[in-house]
Specification:
By secondary structure, the protein is an all-alpha fold. The protein has helices spanning 2-12, 15-25, 30-39, 46-54, 61-71, 75-91, 94-105, 109-145.
Length: 146
């Protein structure tokens, strides 16, 4: 019964969530994950692990097998999680842009999303003000022509 509950959790998670949760459960740093994967014959660096965890890149199939060995869970769980990430990514393309901005600026994803929506709201308000202002001019020009 316990295993089926855990598998259900894996089936709904993205690969980013799964990798981060597994690393945090073991209380490992990025460097520790790199060292453990290197011992298994997979040469990666901290940047690659971070990119996997924030969804800028996804592990390839050979990397998935090594991650499976490292965390002692079936590789199918990683494949399902990777598929969930693709589905989620297609549903929100703007998320990729936000992730890249966060990665390069070093800000958290939460702050990135909040900033995106603030900027989006400002742009919408500015656009409405622009169109309303121009609409008044068009109406005034129409009255002059009548």
């Amino acid at each position: 019964m316990e295993e089926s509950k855990e598998e259900l959790k894996v089936e709904t998670r993205t690969i980013e969530q799964l990798l981060k949760d597994l690393r945090e459960q073991k209380q490992w740093t990025y460097l520790h994950v790199v060292e453990e994967l290197n011992k298994l014959g997979l040469v990666v660096d901290e940047k690659k692990i971070k990119k996997w965890e924030i969804g800028l890149e996804y592990p390839e199939i050979d990397e998935i097998y090594k991650l499976s060995e490292l965390y002692f869970i079936p590789s199918e769980n990683f494949v399902v999680a990777k598929s969930n990430s693709y589905k989620e990514g297609l549903a929100s393309i703007h998320a990729t842009l936000i992730k890249w901005v966060c990665y390069f600026t070093g800000i958290s994803l939460k702050i990135g999303y909040i900033g995106f929506y603030i900027i989006f709201a400002i742009v919408v308000i500015w656009a409405l003000m622009f169109f309303v202002g121009n609409l008044n001019r068009v109406v005034e020009m129409g009255k002059e022509n009548i």
